[in-house]
Design a protein that fits this description.
- With 89 residues, the chain is mainly alpha-helical.
- The chain has a single domain, classed as Fe(II) trafficking protein YggX (YggX-like).
- The protein is built from 3 helices and 2 strands, in the order E-E-H-H-H.
- A two-stranded antiparallel sheet has the order 1-2.
- Helix 2 packs across helix 3.
């Protein structure tokens, strides 16, 4: 039987992640409170952020920015797209 969580993003019970997707306390909070579906939404949003802001996740300050955005996406006010972002049609 799949593990379920009360997903903070979807606001409903859904299938949980199989493992903590990020190290440390933030990764554990995500594992405990975020569904697989919500995690996939984050990955798409993160890809957009990386492309639009030309971030390199290997750079410590870029990684810190993505971590901050991830925390906002799941546990804060949300992570907005850049003003210049035009979704693909």
């Amino acid at each position: 039987m799949a593990r379920t969580v009360d997903c903070v993003l979807l606001k409903e019970e859904a299938e949980g992640l199989d493992f903590a997707p990020y190290p440390g306390e933030l990764g554990q909070r995500i594992y405990d409170n975020v569904s697989k579906q919500a995690w996939q939404q984050w990955l798409a949003h993160q890809t957009m952020l990386i492309n639009e802001y030309r971030l390199t996740p290997i750079e410590p300050e870029h990684r810190k920015r993505l971590e901050t955005e991830m925390e906002q996406f799941f546990f804060g006010e949300g992570s907005a797209a850049p003003k210049e972002f035009v979704p693909p049609s």
